[in-house]
Each structure stands twice: as C-alpha cells, then as structure tokens.
Amino acid sequence: MMETELTIVILAAGLGTRMKSAKAKVLHSAGGQTLIEHVVDTALQLTVPERVFVVVGHQAEQVRKTLAARGVQFIEQAEQKGTGHALMVGREALAAMPGKLVVLYGDCPLISADTLRQLIRLQRESAVAGAMITARLEDPTGYGRVLTDAAGCVQAIVEQRAATSEQLLVKEINSGIYCFSAAEFWAHIGQIRPDNPAKEYYLTDIVEILGSAGRRVRFMRVDDPAEVLGINNRIELAQVDALFRGRKVEELMLAGVTIEKPETVTIDSGVEIGMDTVIEPFARILGSTTIGEECVIGACSILRDSRLGRGVLVGPFTSIHGSRLEDYAHAGPYARLRQSAHVETGAHVGNFVELKKTRLGAGSKAMHLAYLGDSDIGQGVNIGAGTITCNYDGVKKHATTIADGAFIGSNSTLVAPVEIGESAYLGAGSVITHDVPPEALGIGRSRQVNKEGWARKRRVLTGNR
Ligand code: UD1
Ligand code: CA
C-alpha cells in the first residue's frame, strides 16, 4: 500500500569520519548494495520517487550517480552542520509538501517498510506531532538516549557526547527514524540551535522544541534491534552485511534451495535461485545472477551477473562473470567464463578452460586446459586439451569460427581470424593460420622424423655408456 501525501527525506551528506575512508559512508556496501541504495529502495516501497529526497554533500556526484536510475530527488547540503541542518537546507523544497514527513538516515539500511508503515500509523492514530522508532540495546554506546515519560511520550533525546552519567545508563536508543506532521515540523525546525559540545544543529532537539510548544512525540520500540543498527565504522558494516546475508540465505532455503553451510556463502539480494538447486560451501553468487532449478553450484565458485538455466552443474572453484549457461550445461571445476561467454544446452567446459566472448554450441565439449576467446563454436564440436585461440595480434582482436561437428586435435593453435569448416578435423599440435574447409583434415606442423640408431651413435661419440 502506498501512503498518500508522504514525503521521505534520507540524510546522506556526511563523510562518516569513523569509517576512516576516502569514500562517503553511504557508498560503502553491505549485502551487495550500497547503504544508500538499501534505504532508498525501502523508501520507494512507501512513496513515489518525486517525494523521496536524499540530502547529499560528501561525494554528492557519486551518490547522485548511484541513485540515478531510481528517479529520486536531491537536496545539496554543502557544509555538514548536523542532522537538523540537513533538513533546514531542504526547507524550500520540502515545506511545500503537505502531509507527513518521514526522516531516515542513510547509514541505517536494515529498516523495513513494514516497520515504517507501523510508525506512520502510530503518528496518525495518536494524532501527535511526531512519532519515532526506538530500540533497547544492552550496549547503547554511541547512540542518542531517549528520555520517556509514563504516558509513552518522548521528553528529549540526548546525544552520547552531551549526556550526563545518569542519562548514559538509559538503554532506550534513538534509531534516527521519525514520522512528523510536516506542517508542525516546518513550523518549529527554525528553533534548533547549535548549543551542544559539537556545535551542530541536532535534529533530535526538535522533540524538546515541540514539547515546549505543547505538542507531543510518541515512540515505538522495535522488538528486533538489528533493524535500527546504524553503521558508523567497519565493524558495524560487517555486522550489517552478515545480517543481510543471513536474511537472503534464509529466504532462499525457505523457497526450496539447499545451501550447505549457509554461514559460509555470500549471496546478493538481487540473486534469484530455483528450487532444488544445491549451493555448496563458500560459493559467492553476486549481482543480478539468476540460477534455474536443480543446478549445483560447486564449493568456492564465484558467479556474477550471469544466467544459468535448469540442471546446470558448476564445479568447484569456477568463476563465471557476465555469462550465460543454458540447461544442463557443465562448467568447471576450475573454469573461467567471462564477457558474454555463452555455453549452450548440454555443452561442457572442463577444468582450466577459459571462455571469453565465446559461444560454445549445444553438446560441444572443451574438457581440459584451453583458451577460447572471441570465438563462435557450433554444435557437437570437440575441443582437444590445450587448444588456444590466438585472438590478439598485439593491436586488435580477431574472431575464430568453428562450425558444427568439427574436431580440434589437442594442443592446436588457431591463429585468428580463421574459420574451421563443418565436420573438419585438425591434427593434434597444429598451428592453423589458414581456413580449413568442411570435411577436410587440417595439419599445420612439421612431419615427424625418426633417426635410427641416433642414441647409440651419440654414446660412442661422447664416450658415455
Ligand atoms: C544520530 C542521532 C542519534 C541516533 C543515531 C542513530 C542526531 C544528532 N543523532 O547520531 O541520536 O542514535 O543517529 O544511528 O541526529 N548527516 C547529514 N548531514 C549532516 C550530518 C549527518 O546528512 O550534517 C547524515 C549522515 O550522512 C548519516 C546520518 O545523517 O547518514 C546520521 O549522521 P551521523 O553523524 O552518523 O549521526 P550519529 O552520530 O550516528
Ligand atoms: Ca550514525
């Protein structure tokens, strides 16, 4: 369900000093996506892109680029003077938007759309100026502490740096996620002052400001504090990554995928895997990869942005990037497929075989130790061990074509551009520099010579026995 009249602002302008990085914090990845993409995608489950605003500052250009496809709006916060200031700079664009205003932090990517819907409902039904999400943490260090009253309302939020030793004992923490009545929020935001040790405009001060105007802010505590984990350093980044991975493998297992030692595999959120497929330990399945039913993905294999049909077998230690394997194809162990390699139905790619920009036709086999680049290989072709396509002359790449039913003898060197005709044979160890017609035998090597008695003569000459 989409909310009507809902504006969502995502704060993402900070550098994130505690990350110790040249890269803005929200551009770091967890669960296979940048933090800001996770938050924006959640926001887009609740409202239209025209009403999702991302406040950018540090590396604004990269953040804009990362989000370009999503069609959301941007607000520039050139100088980062605090979370309250981040909203103040957007006042002109945002205050014109009636209804509700939800604030999210770009470094808090695990929040779910369902929890946000509950928050919005709480704000609406209790008719308060604002509602916010809290959690109880055994170790609340670093978070703002939420001071509440008996009526379930928030009196104030105090930041770690400004809290008294008594306030530091409070375990109720501020998630940084709020839903306000937009009109009331904009009527009061101007009253935030940078009167704290950090000299920043704290958004959290709005609670007390609304309080002194006789308006209330309610809180909603989430049962699972993981949902509101904010990322400030790389330890927290790794924790959040593990949570995303855990969610993904559980979702897949419940949908009928066998995952051996699930704690060892890495599967990005955009990956799709069919029923009865088996994923062996330490596999990494990344990006937009889709895998059909009844496949096996061998231990330690890495698949990225690739498409596998049904019943595909990928042996251990295989790397597949931007490639396609059709039904019942095999690859690996120790194979490498990249740049639009295309293994058709039932074709086999064996150990230490590399395919680059190459089609291997249905039922064809390249079982051992080969490099096949910029090649179009037909159906039922046998590629012997050690076959190499010399596709690069030092300046340009050239194509190799091998027609249906051809037999390429072991250790052949095909110097491209070259064409091997249908059902042709190549003698083992050939260097092929000219096209071979259909049904022909191509041999490109010097003849073998046996010199009778050569070894005996040599012994006599050298005086050796
Ligand atoms: C903030 C809250 C704290 C809460 C915690 C939850 C305040 C003052 N404190 O603290 O109560 O417990 O989040 O994770 O709000 N940002 C801007 N512009 C700025 C400053 C920050 O866009 O000028 C963005 C950052 O990029 C970040 C988010 O706001 O995505 C939060 O900022 P951060 O500095 O991490 O706040 P915390 O210290 O974690
Ligand atoms: Ca934070």
Oligomer: single chain
CA radius of gyration is 31 Å
Count up the helices.
Answer: 9
Query: Distance between the terminal alpha carbons, to the nearest Å?
Result: 93 Å
**Major beta sheet summary:** 16 strands, parallel
Q: Can you list the ligands bound to this structure?
A: uridine-diphosphate-N-acetylglucosamine, calcium ion
Coarse structural class: alpha/beta
Q: What is the arithmetic mean of pLDDT?
A: 96
Shape: elongated
Explain what this protein looks like in three dimensions:
- This protein has 465 residues and is an alpha/beta fold.
- The chain has nine helices and 39 strands.
- It has a 16-stranded parallel sheet that branches. The protein has a nine-stranded parallel sheet with strand order 14-17-20-23-26-28-30-33-36, with no helix packed on it. A seven-stranded mixed sheet has the order 5-4-1-6-10-7-11.
- A hairpin with a 5-residue loop joins strand 8 and strand 9.
- The chain starts with 5 loop residues before the first strand and ends with a helix.
- The mean pLDDT is 96.
- It binds uridine-diphosphate-N-acetylglucosamine and calcium ion.
- Calcium ion binds next to loops.
